[in-house]
Amino acid sequence: MATHSALQAVQRRGPWLQEEDRRLTMFVTRMGERKWDSIAKASGLERSGKSCRFRWLNYLRPNLKRDRINSKEEEIIMKLHKKWGNKWSRIARWLPGRTDNEIKNYWNTHIKRKLLSRGIDPTTHRAIIDPSPATTISFTSNSAVEDQEDRKKQVNDSSPTEKRHLLDLNLDLKISPPYPVAAGAATTKNEGRNSLCFSCSLGFENSKDCSCGNGKNNIIASSDNSKGFDFLGLKSCVLDCRTLEIK
DNA sequence: AAATGGTTCAACCGCGGAATA
DNA sequence: ATATTCCGCGGTTGAACCATT
Q: Does the keyword Phosphoprotein apply (predicted)?
């Protein structure tokens, strides 16, 4: 049996024309963001439903950011990539206005190269070559903390040559919520620091990852804030590379 | 000014899983 | 229960653009 796509007339490919964009926008608005093959047919566009979906999601959809990814977003991408790997759509959900395709491109063209130039494996986020002993390590998950403790043990049990390779460079950046310096509130550096969790500070107030109580400015329940800020089940900590101590 | 090489990113492809007939 | 269609994802490609020689 011939597939649906095989029955289609010759389909256009390549860059979209303004008129095509206009028509697609009109029909998606009318028919909703489903049934892309139907939209493709109804609109009279000589494009596949798949192509229409892609164009809409990555270019025409409202509220897309068109400016370049900034350093804050880059930090988030790095952080989430370490946690989830190449799960671009999942990462994109944490960056409003950004598409998975955009993040994937940015990763491959900017971050990946940046990490490689620093001797970091972009897949594992671990050092490819001997790390500088003076490098500060920050932001690591609970499991990563355990990993580090395991590694610390391994290092102690290893020969000097092995130690060089077991020492691990982690250039993850520490992500913190903006300090809410409410009028007359914080007088010291740490006061009021935890009134918004990272999830809420990104605008995801009802997220399951919210740790402050749906944006109600609750203080994090954690009894030990000195260990860092919890985000997505991770703790932000600082690990001294020389002593391998969590601070 | 032209040639060359590198970079960027929009778009396509193939696959797997979910939904539907 | 099975076949087919639809959808979404991650990987890859290639044209356009930019920088350098």
A: no
Rounded distance between C-alpha atoms, residue A73 and residue A140, angstroms: 18
Average pLDDT over residues A124-129: 75
Rounded distance in angstroms from the CA atom of residue A99 to the C1' atom of nucleotide B14: 20
Is the overall model pTM greater than 0.70, yes or no?
A: no
Examine domains A14-60 and A71-117 and report if their fold is the same. yes
> In Å, what is the separation between the CA of A35 and the C1' of B20?
12
Which bases of strand B have any atom within 7 Å of the beta carbon of a protein residue? Answer: 7-14
Give the DSSP H/E element, type plus range, for residue A136: strand A136-141
pLDDT of residue A33: 87
Please state the CATH superfamily assignment of the domain spanning residues A71-117 in this structure.
Homeodomain-like (1.10.10.60)
Contact, A38 CB vs strand B, < 7 Å = no
Please name the nucleotide lying closest to A66, CA to C1'.
B9
Going by CATH, does the domain composed of A14-60 fall within 3.40.50.1820? no
